[in-house]
Design goal:
Blueprint: H1 3-44, E1 50-55, E2 61-65, H2 77-90, E3 99-101, H3 104-107, E4 121-123, H4 124-134, H5 137-148, H6 151-164, H7 187-200, E5 212-215, E6 218-221, E7 233-241, E8 245-254, E9 257-266, H8 269-283, H9 300-308, H10 324-331, E10 385-386, H11 388-395, H12 412-418, E11 424-425, H13 426-433, E12 441-448, H14 451-464, H15 466-469, E13 473-481, E14 484-494, H16 496-508, E15 514-517
Antiparallel strand pairs: 1-2, 1-9, 3-4, 5-6, 7-8, 8-9, 10-11, 12-14, 12-15, 13-14
Helix pairs in contact: 2-5, 4-5, 5-6, 11-12
Length: about 525
């Protein structure tokens, strides 16, 4: 090799080495900048916090912060998705080996997902493991479509099941927990669900303790990092979307004690885990060590409320019943009681038989109509003055339509007005008698597919902002949106300043609100 060619090759090697060094430096700089930007975002990211700890043995709340404030469930939604799947398994309407088809809608879901393609299928057992570990959104939709035909109808079943379990403030719009402003829950409701899935399905609950599973050669770890790390943790589910922060429902059993802890709004998975670990440490050792609470199943809250209502004392028998109607009712034989469905049963509610008693109406006596006044009567103007005391009395009298069957006698109040001395101008009296007008402003706190959900939102808003809403009138308003109907949840009769204050107050408590002029 000639000296000149050797120099050229040596220069090329040095040039390649210098270029590689520059590229490495650029990569390191970009990575550092990315970490810096992430730290800046993290420092300003403060999702709304909520938590609750429930003693599953006694049913008592041991600790709570914002437990009834609305929050987005994120992937905690999938606990209810699996609850409905476990129901079908228990009823033998589906098997663990049943293959469920993958639709285009399911395959199009955003991550986290298994990445299934339209036309493929997945068996129920694999789907359950994919939900509890990978939190696969495509699999959640596959389950919804297999059980209800489509995700929208499945979400309605989810909300109905939430009501049956006593989850008063939970509304589902999808099966996965992907962002939807209308999909909300509370820490207290998720604690109910976390207990219910264990009490109702002990045969299937063990799936929530799965630490990892392998699918098509890939090992997938459970997002619940407390499994195997915190003594006694046996499940159940984590979740995250930006609007909710990092959430978790967890269950802990130690020495006969059993608690369910829920945390919403962690700034990171590590921050969430630290929060719930502290709650566990502070409460597990003082929890009850024997089960006394009833099982959490459908209708359990109603049964519990009935058990807590004291039996009223028996009234002494009435000596004599004068009314013929009352005598017939009293002498009729009692109807046999209708037992309610067992908790968790899918049997329809049976109608309660009703007694029908025929009663002959009595003779109605009416007075004859008073004769009409003569056409030549003299009309007198109303008096121009009135007594304030008499006006106050009149203002409290309820206005009712005239009774045409009897001739009304002059009332004491009317006599007082007629004979009142001249002290107050008639204009002032009219203003005093007039009802205060309602404000022209309306506020809207949500829009829902089901009117019952809209009414629930109105109830929540009223409870949260009683002082700010005052005497505002709640109502629902149906409005057609394409092929479906939405029900708006609104309050009417507010002044502008009152509406502004109420909306600001509700928004600070995570209830959406907007003002409208009527």
């Amino acid at each position: 090799m000639s000296p000149s060619r050797a120099r050229v090759q040596r220069n090329r090697r040095w040039g390649a080495l210098a270029l590689a060094s520059l590229l490495a430096a650029a990569v390191v700089t970009n990575a550092a900048d990315a970490r810096s930007r992430h730290r800046q975002r993290s420092s300003s990211y403060n999702p709304p916090y909520a938590s609750i700890v429930v003693d599953a043995n006694s049913g008592k709340v041991m600790a709570a912060v914002n437990a009834d404030s609305p929050r987005h469930p994120a992937s905690l939604t999938k606990i209810m998705t699996l609850y409905l799947l476990f129901e079908r398994l228990e009823a033998n309407k589906i098997k663990l080996s049943t293959e469920m088809p993958v639709s285009a809608h399911a395959a199009a879901q955003a991550p986290s997902k298994l990445g299934l393609k339209p036309g493929q299928s997945i068996d129920v057992a694999t789907a359950i493991r994919a939900i509890v570990t990978k939190s696969a959104n495509d699999v959640a939709v596959i389950i919804a479509e297999a059980l209800a035909g489509n995700e929208t109808d499945f979400a309605k079943l989810m909300t109905a099941k939430a009501r049956a379990l006593g989850m008063k403030h939970t509304f589902y719009q999808n099966a996965s927990g992907l962002p939807d402003d209308r999909q909300i829950t509370t820490a207290r409701d998720q604690a109910i669900l976390g207990r219910a899935v264990q009490d109702r399905f002990p045969k299937y609950y063990h799936y929530f303790s799965t630490r990892y599973f392998v699918y098509q050669g890939k090992r997938m770890r459970n997002h619940n990092h407390l499994l195997g790390r915190i003594d006694g943790v046996d499940g159940i589910k984590t979740g995250y979307i930006h609007e909710s922060g990092f959430n978790i429902v967890t269950s802990v059993r130690r020495g006969g004690r059993h608690i369910v802890a829920v945390v919403f709004g962690g700034r990171s998975a590590a921050a969430r885990d630290a929060r719930v670990t502290g709650l566990i440490a502070n409460n597990i050792n003082v929890a009850a060590n024997k089960r006394a609470a009833p099982p959490v199943v459908e209708g359990w809250m109603t049964a519990l409320a009935r058990a807590e209502i004291p039996t009223p004392p028996v009234k002494p028998p009435v000596a004599k019943i004068k009314s013929p109607v009352a005598q017939k009712i009293a002498s009729a034989p009692p109807l046999p009681p209708v037992p309610p469905p067992m908790p968790g049963s899918t049997d329809p509610i049976r109608p309660i038989p009703v007694k029908t008693i025929m009663v002959q109406p009595g003779i109605m006596h009416t007075a004859s109509l008073a004769p009409l006044p003569a056409a030549s009567r003299t009309l007198r103007p109303a008096p121009t003055t009135a007594n304030p005391a008499a006006i106050t009395t009149i203002a409290t009298v309820k206005s009712e339509p005239p009774n045409l069957t009897t001739k009304p006698a002059p009332t004491t109040v009317a006599k007082k007005v007629a004979s009142a001395p001249a002290k107050v101008p008639a204009k002032a009296a009219t203003q005093e008698l007039a009802a205060k007008p309602h404000g022209p402003w309306i506020i809207q706190v949500g829009a829902f597919d089901i009117e019952k959900d809209a009414k629930e939102r109105l109830s929540i808003a009223k409870d949260k902002a009683k002082a700010q809403l005052g005497e505002a009138s709640p109502f629902t308003e149906p409005v057609a949106k394409g092929a479906k109907t939405l029900y708006r949840a609104r309050f009417a009769g507010l002044e502008k300043s009152q509406a502004e204050i109420a909306c600001k107050y509700l928004k600070r408590r995570d209830i959406p609100c907007m003002m409208l002029k009527n």
